[in-house]
Specification:
Helix content is about 40%, strand content about 0%. It is built from one helix and no strands.
Length: about 60
C-alpha cells in the first residue's frame, strides 16, 4: 500500500496432519450381532453363483 507499513507472514502448512486415535472408532448399534466372516463369505459366494448362473444361461441361448 502506498504510505503503509510492511507485513511479515510466517506460514506453515501441515500436509499430513495427525489423526486422533478415536477418529475411526465404530460403535455398533445395541441390537446388532457379529457375523463370522466365513458365514458372510458363503452368502456372498452363493449370491454370486446365482447371478453367474443366470448370465451363463443368457450367453448359451436361454432367456
Amino acid at each position: 500500500m502506498a504510505g503503509g507499513g510492511s507485513y511479515a507472514v510466517d506460514l506453515t502448512l501441515d500436509w499430513a496432519p495427525a489423526v486422533a486415535p478415536g477418529f475411526f472408532a465404530f460403535s455398533p448399534p445395541a441390537a446388532s450381532q457379529a457375523v463370522p466372516f466365513s458365514q458372510l463369505l458363503q452368502g456372498v459366494m452363493f449370491s454370486a453363483a446365482g447371478k453367474l448362473g443366470g448370465l451363463l444361461s443368457a450367453f448359451v441361448g436361454g432367456r
